[in-house]
Amino acid sequence: xxxxxxxxxxxxxxxxxxxxxxALEVHPTSMxxxxxxxxxxxxxxxxxxxxxxxxxxxxxxxxxxxxxEDAESMKRCLTQLGIEFTELEHGIQIIGKxxxxxxxxxxxxxxxxxxxxxxxxxxxxxxxxxxxxVDGDATLRNRNHSNLLNALSPLNVEFSYGIEQERLxxxxxxxxxxxxxxxxxxxxxxxxxxxxLASSGLExxxxxxxxxxxxxxxxxxxxxxxMKESGAxxxxxxxxxxxxxxxxxxxxxxxxxxxxxMMAFPILACVLTKxxxxxxxxxxxxxxxxxxxxxxxxDAFGIILDHSTLNPxxxxxSIDINLRDANDLLPPLAATLALCGGGRLRGAAxxxxxxxxxxxxTKTLLESFGISSTIEEDGLSIEGGQRLSKPENLIDxxxxxxxxxxxxxxxxxxxxxxxxxxxxxxxxxxFLDRLSTMPTEVLVKGVQR
Length: 449
Prior knowledge:
Layout (H helix, E strand, L loop, with lengths): L1 H7 L11 E7 L8 E2 L5 H12 L4 E5 L6 H12 L3 E5 L2 E5 L13 E2 L4 H11 L6 E4 L2 H4 L4 H7 L5 E4 L8 E4 L6 E5 L5 H9 L7 E6 L5 H13 L4 E4 L2 E4 L9 E3 L8 H10 L3 E3 L13 H4 L7 E3 L2 E3 L7 E4 L7 H10 L2 E5 L11 H11 L4 E4 L2 E5 L17 H14 L1 E4 L20 E6 L4
Parallel strand pairs: 2-15, 3-14, 6-7, 10-11, 18-19
Antiparallel strand pairs: 1-22, 1-23, 3-5, 4-5, 7-9, 8-9, 11-13, 12-13, 15-17, 16-17, 19-21, 20-21
């Protein structure tokens, strides 16, 4: 069966594009109001959903009205595995089943655009004594998932997957035979977090050895913090993580904090409009997951934070920022530096493994608006004091919602047509509602890459 399945699944062909591409036509506009409500943190929410699903009790996640498509993908896939969700006015109620209560999905577990959901689902599926098919969108099909598969294979977990550059869908058949794993954390923290969460319900101690220089460390630390809140005992000694046998038991009510990485967009909007923007739900540093680096350097952007309000009052200056633990900031932060005092974004080599090669795609985005930058080995160098010009051609977003959201804010000043009209919904469904003039969805004749 596996060999035949592999033959049926192959790559669509590098550079494939449809004949007509859905896009947004953005005209120069202003903000509908100088107030910004940050969306809930999908990093927190997806982990909390998994931990509640691994429980055998009823739990409620609070603090939001809408969730982005990444979290929605995780919710949908957990529902397929038998977990019960109920929508509430300001949250979601979840009835967990425990890992032994998961049911075989009647259809493919499709993670959409969410790399986090995909890898967590692979980890969960690897514990189950039946076959699960896990898939994602085109951007996930072109990403490398070998670090997680290589970590699980020694436990006799069976995989069958596609060929050439597309490694999805993947058939996963557990359960684990053993509890000692080795995982590479040099390009992403998600495989490590996936293994940590999947250890729930094991009858013996689990030991995970990490290899490589870790990136996005705050995200793996978040996984461990939430596990401890759910009753896990985790001991870390250098590169060895030991988890005692545990069954997930999260708080009955759990508040999801706002997304710290989304602060990059009101900051860019403040720089563009030169108007004050009030943050309705500011992020505590403890929940910012490394993105507090934004607030640490507001003065370099010529911004003063006063009672949760961003005020464009100061002078800009050149700055050097390490994004080792915050590579999601790269597109909007690069645009902000170009319009302010410039500088260097470093420590983001792992951004090459996101929805797109985010270093190259950020440079391409900036060039669309007449902004120059230089690719470095681990990031970008950007000259300050640059001015925007209206793009002559369709702005390619590479299926990356952070590229798209940055492009929309830049186009709100000079206009532009932007590929991917719904990408922002992955993280922030209300993103377009902040513009005074709603962009128009259009179809643009495709050009092969």
